[in-house]
Amino acid sequence: MESIWAALSSASPYLLSFILLLIFLEQISYLKKKSSIPGPTLVFPFVGNAISLVLNPTKFWETQTTLAKSSPLGISANYIIGRFIIFVQSTDFSHKIFANVRPDAFHLVGHPFGKKLFGEHNLIYMMGQDHKDLRRRIAPNFTPKALATYISLQQSIILTHLQTWVSLSNRTEPISLRLLCRDMNLETSQKVFVGPYLDRELQTRFNLDYSFFNTGLMALPVDLPGFEFRNARLAVSRLVETLAFCADQSKAKIKAGGEATCLIDFWMQETMTEITAAEKAGEPAPPHTASKVFGGHLFDFLFASQDASTSSLLWGVTLLDSHPEVLARVREEVARIWSPESDRLITAEELREMKYTEAVAREVIRFRAPATMVPHIAGEEFRLSEEYVIPKGAIVFPSVFESSFQGFTEPHLFDPDRFMEGRQEDRVYKKNFLAFGAGAHQCVGQRYAVNHLVLFIALFTSLIDFKRHRTDGCDEIAYIPTICPKDDCKVFLYRRCTRFPSLW
């Protein structure tokens, strides 16, 4: 033992020198990549600013925004666990990144350590013809007929949850809507995406695994037993397996001639035709038709819709409460078209008539873009401008949030009229409305997402009187990882209608 200690003691100066050399080289590499763009002059060895990002993400990204605004290029730099990062405030440069998703430029990752978390073969990582083919296959999921089917499912679940929320509320203590909205949206996603194939036992397991996943999104990316990131990664594998089982059930139903009642059924209709044709011809099944592949893509849909939708619902309530004139106009429009006492759901045609309510929904999404940034990795060096080349391996964050406050008329005002026919700012300033992305990877389910928010606003404002529990800083932005009000949107709720619709 003494000889081991002696050996360690004699080696310690060399070990210390080696560590200092690594730290020195790391700082030199960071400064070289940073070049002249704003960012920290020195970074903490090995972990960079990862701890400050995890402990206070709001402050971290506000600092990056301030630094980017101080630069003529509209970009800033930082360093997180061995990875050089670039924050992009400029709308023009954000579009340049979205337009150059290809093997020799940028790779969309969805999360800084997404490939570890989601696996290698998800929709967001696909490019080129393979990606185009898959998006073509996805298109039947969002036809008017399919969306009308989803509208009924969405409303039934929203109505059930709204009744529960009112029963939980009282006149002395506010309730927090964040977790309630999250649970409602998770059930909505489950019913819309995989309908009857998720029984109560599977649903309970599914909800638990999704909770593990959600927690791991904001954790340090330590892939070791006992750490939240590892729990999240394993949970994703189980979620994909569950969704693959649902895909198997849908295949059997559609093959037997059953009607489509959820998203996976609509997806399977053309898929089963192709699989059957291949079987008759003695050929292998077409690409992207294995149930586990469907499970992975369904998880992509779930991730894209779940937390972003929760964010938008919370901001919808917050902004309607602080803009009573907007709330009054929404209620007046909905009352002209639909009544709770009719004991029926809002139809797809009636939903299209709610022009102002949809304008409110779009303004909520613009004003508080839920997924504020869309991480990409530079697969190769990329010349962003004459002044700066993005180094290979950099994680690049185009800011959807910052683009929303560029170009529009008085962009810092919450003004739904900007999306009405008279002004059409969604067309005039289309390049600044990046909440659903741009380019080849633009969100395929954006119509579904807008419908969900419009339905929620229409039902919530018609059925419920609500009042925010306002405290200092309650409307400040918190990252979870999408954005929500800092207080989780605490409200008092009261039933507004004479009775809830009787649908059962």
UniProtKB/TrEMBL annotation:
It catalyses: 5-dehydroepisterol + NADPH + O2 + H(+) = ergosta-5,7,22,24(28)-tetraen-3beta-ol + NADP(+) + 2 H2O. It is a single-pass membrane protein. Its EC number is 1.14.19.41. It comes from the Eukaryota. The keyword Transcription does not apply. GO terms for cellular component: membrane. Its cofactor is heme. Belongs to the cytochrome P450 family. This is sterol 22-desaturase. It comes from Escallonia herrerae.
